[in-house]
Amino acid sequence: MTVKAKTSPKMAVQIGPLKLKNPVMTASGTFGYGEEYAGYIDLNNLGAIVVKGLSLKPRLGNPPPRIMETTGGMLNAVGLQNVGVDAFIDEKLPFLRKCDVAVIANIYGETYDDYKKVAQRLSAAKGVHALEVNISCPNVKNGGLSFGADPKIAAKVTSIVKNETSLPVIVKLTPNVTDITSIALAVEKAGADAVSLINTLTGMSVDLKTRRPHLKNITGGLSGPAIKPVALRMVWQVVQKVSVPVIGIGGIMTAEDALEFLIVGAKAVQIGTANFVNPRATMEILAGIKDYLIDSKIKDVNELIGTFQP
Amino acid sequence: MTVKAKTSPKMAVQIGPLKLKNPVMTASGTFGYGEEYAGYIDLNNLGAIVVKGLSLKPRLGNPPPRIMETTGGMLNAVGLQNVGVDAFIDEKLPFLRKCDVAVIANIYGETYDDYKKVAQRLSAAKGVHALEVNISCPNVKNGGLSFGADPKIAAKVTSIVKNETSLPVIVKLTPNVTDITSIALAVEKAGADAVSLINTLTGMSVDLKTRRPHLKNITGGLSGPAIKPVALRMVWQVVQKVSVPVIGIGGIMTAEDALEFLIVGAKAVQIGTANFVNPRATMEILAGIKDYLIDSKIKDVNELIGTFQP
Amino acid sequence: MAGNIYIGEVLENEEVQENCFLMKLRTAPSFDNPVPGQFVMIRIAGLNDPFLSRPISIYSFSRNEIFCTIDLLYRVVGKGTQILAGLIEGSQVEINGPLGNGFDTTSVRKNIVFISGGIGIAPLSMLIESLSSKSEISSSQMIMYPGFQSISAVVGLEKVDRLCSDMNVCTDDGTVGEKGFVTQIFKKDIRQFKPEDTSIFACGPRGMMKALAEVLNKSKFICQVSLEERMACGTGACMGCAVAIKDKEGAMSYKRVCSDGPVFDLNDIIWD
Amino acid sequence: MAGNIYIGEVLENEEVQENCFLMKLRTAPSFDNPVPGQFVMIRIAGLNDPFLSRPISIYSFSRNEIFCTIDLLYRVVGKGTQILAGLIEGSQVEINGPLGNGFDTTSVRKNIVFISGGIGIAPLSMLIESLSSKSEISSSQMIMYPGFQSISAVVGLEKVDRLCSDMNVCTDDGTVGEKGFVTQIFKKDIRQFKPEDTSIFACGPRGMMKALAEVLNKSKFICQVSLEERMACGTGACMGCAVAIKDKEGAMSYKRVCSDGPVFDLNDIIWD
Ligand SMILES: Cc1cc2nc3c(=O)[nH]c(=O)nc-3n(C[C@H](O)[C@H](O)[C@H](O)COP(=O)(O)OP(=O)(O)OC[C@H]3O[C@@H](n4cnc5c(N)ncnc54)[C@H](O)[C@@H]3O)c2cc1C
Ligand SMILES: Cc1cc2nc3c(=O)[nH]c(=O)nc-3n(C[C@H](O)[C@H](O)[C@H](O)COP(=O)(O)OP(=O)(O)OC[C@H]3O[C@@H](n4cnc5c(N)ncnc54)[C@H](O)[C@@H]3O)c2cc1C
Ligand SMILES: Cc1cc2nc3c(=O)[nH]c(=O)nc-3n(C[C@H](O)[C@H](O)[C@H](O)COP(=O)(O)O)c2cc1C
Ligand SMILES: Cc1cc2nc3c(=O)[nH]c(=O)nc-3n(C[C@H](O)[C@H](O)[C@H](O)COP(=O)(O)O)c2cc1C
Ligand code: FES
Ligand code: FES
């Protein structure tokens, strides 16, 4: 057996104008505002922290029950409970500013104007490195579907945010659509610096004792390893169509899962639900990616990205 | 404790013009032509048998590997390998005709004309009780999407089949769409006697050793309990919109799963992937539904259907 | 008192009562000393079915120089607890803990009343042990009302029995102790306790807590209750375990059972 | 010989070689007598992770009046086999079997050659036992070529050792027996065997089978091989375990390893 020289491979990746130490970031809504996991891992070792979705005003969120386990995943209908953009800047950002890690603010609005104002305020604050625009949330005005299900509306949100900020803008796509590539192309054209996908698949579950939904909100977002095959397929489809960087999200639990996304062409990955069951998941995934690169004699993670052989 | 009188509840359900002994049927492609499971269960106890998708000509199917396990599910890209409609009628139907069970032929075409001819031949054969029209298959002419992703095309396929047959026509919907209710409404308007949903979600998975897809076909259909929350949500959405019976499919492994579908309003359920891991799944589900009805003092399964309290 | 991830080795896992198990886990000495009312999230590493970790209160805790021992008392109610029950000696589990804010014992009053429903005895047992070890508290101050469905469900009284001066076991069906819901039995005795002089600690199913709130009816009793809610993360990140709470100004907001609780002031809880 | 669902109780589950386990299962007497080459689909009832059942060849089988005993010899290569390896005595598994079409032994020729790669020894061991019990077959006719990666992988020779007149163990690294791939070692000896007088039975990884096909090169040898393919149902329903096969007229079609096989005539297999 030859002893492998464990020279650490280069891990930095570039998401448009945003440079990340490594391709492993956290997914919005699954990592709080960072602090919650500071006791478990060294936040500075993350590629980036994407914080919980921020709205203009603080949001109470949906009444409980909000979560339910499913086979290989979970449903959530948290309803974007968050402190609001101003409290985030005042109370949460100072902690994150002290970390040496890229901070990405996930933003959410009920109207075009909401998106505009949230983007404005975050762009004025110090310590936010990029915006991730969540267009996957249900919008009552649009027939129960979401901003993200219509290419025109998705593009409009994108250009509104782009106009307000000089920060890199990542647009986060919903999987609950017939053709995710058409949405991806639309937001790319509207100026998105990158796209991230997927958000949760809409699902539901019923309590047999009461014949009521397990979630007070009736439906919720399905996340976790159950959705990984769908996420990977969509990422691969989008990678083939757009030229901006694609961030892969959905059911990533292990380094192997993350590697699949990188191989099909994602420049980075976000770890979501995995944090809940294993608060150290991001670090284990990062270590596993490095090991794979070393074993495969690849010196730079960028040389692995997109090497899929269909 | 009072002794429960185990008087068997009434289980018959009506799918439009088609009367079934009970609401538990098998899902196409997961139960062969029935024979494969005759040693495991008494086929006569099923609500119906839906046979493997039939095309006009025999189909070789896709090259292997065709399946891959995922968390809580599996991907398949069998590619509709089947004996063709004529061989089905000659070789497989005689066996099924001897059973006292409703036989539903799942049909598939690459062109409108294919659907027409397959429907014709099956309608002329004795022993087929209904047609289930699979419009969820990729159609190259339609930009890589499927017949089932476009309400107009879905409606056209439906009326073509309706014109050729006096058998009840069930249209099977794909979940890979933004708004499944619009497709359901379109096929209802075009004359469908019932709709069944969901078919598989499109997914993929990558072999890290070779950086090739696990499936030769690259993408495949995701089935199994992983998709159940999505299936249940879609069934509930469709039930609220259409007035024809809805058949629930997707990740049903247990009686509890089946009951969730019935409660949100499915008139019947199809059991798919569960047959693979437990060839007796249908019978266990049927027994479990009966037990639930007895425990809940419900004398007829139809009194349970649609009793969801959102 | 802050959570972290540990490997726990099963030392014992015994069915102490029908469907009720006592699991002794051995873990690293770096495990923080828990406060009564804190809990752990437990799972089998790598297993995706069940998918989420399960929250279980710490029933008892001890340490020596080389390891810590965590006792969990749990009832088998579904898949997750079923799998826990199947673990044999030597099996490994992953534990995240200690988590949450336990009971506040900084200023307990003269009378200390414990009210539990079913397996809700678990965190109270640790609390009673902990209070008993305080020199300023004597067993004569401590009165316990443990409620169970039936005699076959009585569990977790071993340690607390000799620590409380008064044990008022009750069962819904009267098969042992007084017959009736524990909140009703307590209500019969309530005149014995002067509200200003009494601290109440309670843990049990939601229905019991709500009944208790009605019994106390915003009197001057101080009542700390430990709540249960479905959890995903246990660390405050997912916002999944929300409970409606009134703040000082009376405004409603959703607090996290895992990290704002699980112990809350009964008066602050908004019932629906 | 037709499959059905049985509960199997683990009687023994021993690591007989690094990462290789021998599991003895006790099951109901109604389990059909298997033919060598048949297999079972095995899973833990109710567990969704891993999700699918795993196909494992029957290594040995016996019955008495009250129960049947099924032996499985398996290598731990992933999650499913890892979980099997963790089962202790008394655990229960669900088995679907016996499945597939085993080896055809109706007209074996004078020389009987067995070629195995790794754990592919499992079905051949049962085949050799079965042939040995036939009065018309003597051990002098039976020649075995078991190949392994290394000495630490040698497994499953206990029973066959004394049943074959000739044992040509080989390892890829030469740590025991001859050094080289088993197909190469067999090739060196091939002149000893007259094709018309020889029946070959083989089981091993795909690469080995393909190499064997090249060695035999459509000669008059009759070679039955047992193939492996990922399986979902094991019963012929899902069409998942396809292998490209030439029919009499030379046309290609996809056959199911589970129910058209797993044993095929090597000459009929189309390699890609
Ligand atoms: C802070 C906290 C401490 C707890 N301490 C203990 C303890 O010491 N001993 C003990 O036996 N149990 C305790 N529980 C409850 C325990 O977490 C649940 O019984 C367990 O998660 C059920 O898992 P399961 O897979 O067996 O059941 P499931 O199949 O998940 O559910 C079975 C039933 O239990 C209910 N349930 C599931 N999860 C919870 C939950 N988190 N809280 C309340 N009900 C739930 C479900 O609604 C369902 O009715 C505690 C819960 C919390 C939140
Ligand atoms: C008819 C038949 C008989 C078999 N008999 C035996 C036996 O007696 N002893 C034994 O140890 N193994 C046998 N196998 C192989 C065994 O089924 C696989 O090793 C097992 O399914 C792997 O499961 P896993 O979850 O541990 O690994 P996974 O995590 O599923 O996979 C690990 C690796 O094994 C490969 N693999 C997975 N499933 C199969 C499969 N069905 N066939 C071939 N490779 C596979 C994967 O591609 C991967 O490289 C047999 C297979 C078949 C089809
Ligand atoms: C509890 C929870 C809350 C979430 N909140 C947000 C959010 O605020 N904004 C957002 O864009 N995505 C949110 N998501 C979606 C995740 O960021 C991620 O896209 C999704 O969960 C799929 O990834 P996973 O399977 O790794 O969790 C949330 C997911 C969960 C489970
Ligand atoms: C191996 C396999 C083959 C299938 N073939 C067909 C088919 O021929 N026609 C069809 O309409 N659906 C087919 N399906 C889809 C199923 O009928 C069902 O809609 C889907 O698998 C979801 O249900 P399940 O999760 O219970 O399996 C197939 C599914 C699988 C897994
Ligand atoms: S369980 Fe996640 S916030 Fe409480
Ligand atoms: S495994 Fe299903 S047909 Fe062979």
Structure description:
The complex is a heterotetramer, with two copies of chain A (310 residues) and two copies of chain C (272 residues). The longest helix of chain A is centred in the last third of the chain and has 15 residues, at 281-295. Chain A has helices spanning 85-97, 112-124, 151-164, 180-189, 228-241, 255-264, 274-277, 281-295; strands at residues 13-15, 18-20, 24-26, 48-50, 67-70, 73-76, 102-107, 130-134, 169-172, 194-197, 201-204, 206-207, 212-213, 219-223, 246-249, 268-271. Chain A has one domain: TIM Barrel. With 310 residues, chain A is α/β, with parallel strands linked by helices. Chain A is built from eight helices and 16 strands. In chain A, strand 12 (206-207) and strand 13 form a beta hairpin. An eight-stranded parallel β-sheet of chain A has the order 3-16-15-10-9-8-7-4. In chain A, strands 5-6-14-11 form a four-stranded antiparallel β-sheet, with no helix packed on it. Chain A is globular and about 55 Å long. With 272 residues, chain C is α/β, with parallel strands linked by helices. Chain C folds into two domains: 4-99, Elongation Factor Tu (Ef-tu), domain 3; 111-228, Rossmann fold (3-Layer(aba) Sandwich), CATH 3.40.50.80. Chain C has five helices and 17 strands. Chain C has helices spanning 79-85, 121-132, 158-161, 182-189, 206-216; strands at residues 4-17, 20-27, 39-43, 54-57, 60-63, 68-75, 92-99, 111-117, 142-148, 166-167, 170-171, 178-179, 198-203, 222-226, 242-246, 252-256, 263-265. In chain C, the strands form three sheets. In chain C, strands 8, 9, 10, 11, 12, 13, 14 and 17 form an eight-stranded mixed β-sheet that branches. A seven-stranded antiparallel β-sheet of chain C has the order 4-3-7-1-2-6-5. A two-stranded antiparallel ribbon of chain C has the order 15-16. In chain C, strand 15 (242-246) and strand 16 (252-256) form a beta hairpin. The mean pLDDT of chain C is 92. Chains A and B meet through strand 11, strand 13, helix 5 and helix 6 of A and strand 11, strand 13, helix 5 and helix 6 of B. The complex binds flavin-adenine dinucleotide (2 copies), flavin mononucleotide (2 copies) and FE2/S2 (inorganic) cluster (2 copies). One flavin-adenine dinucleotide (FAD) binds at residues 39, 50, 54-57, 73-75, 77-81, 119, 122, 228-231, 257, 262 of chain C.
